[in-house]
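Q: Here's a chain of 147 amino acids. Please give me its 3D structure as tokens.
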Amino acid sequence: MGQSWSRWQQRRGAKTLQELAPHKTPGHEDPLPDLDRDILLTALNNVASYIKKKGGDVTVVAVGGAVNTIHLQSRSVTHDVDFYNNHLTAKDFETPLNGAREAVKKHKSLEEDWFNNRTILFMPRDQCAALTDEALLSARSYSRSLG
């Protein structure tokens, strides 16, 4: 744990997870907004445009409700987009998050933490890199199969 934890902290900074932890704010007890497929696609396109505008090249792996809503279409809404990528540097990590903040300004249905990587808190640390590699490899194979 010690060595891999240190490398993880160097890549992300110890402050990062603390910033991503849910914050209790007034109205937090209110139901989270329902984000449908169209809202999510628009918001993610806004994030992608921001990344491109900043000259970035960042890939994240989406999991959970966003995949069910956008790709599988097995549910009509979700509340957020959970993502991870164990290989992101601190700078790489900030670019999509800043893009997500910009997307909030453009769409009133989005809350501040609609795009987050809190899912990393539930992934075994010793498996994060392997899961990232496997997901990215699968995504490349899937993209090639589409033509």
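Q: Can you summarize the key feature?
A: Confidence is low (pLDDT under 50) at residues 1-6.
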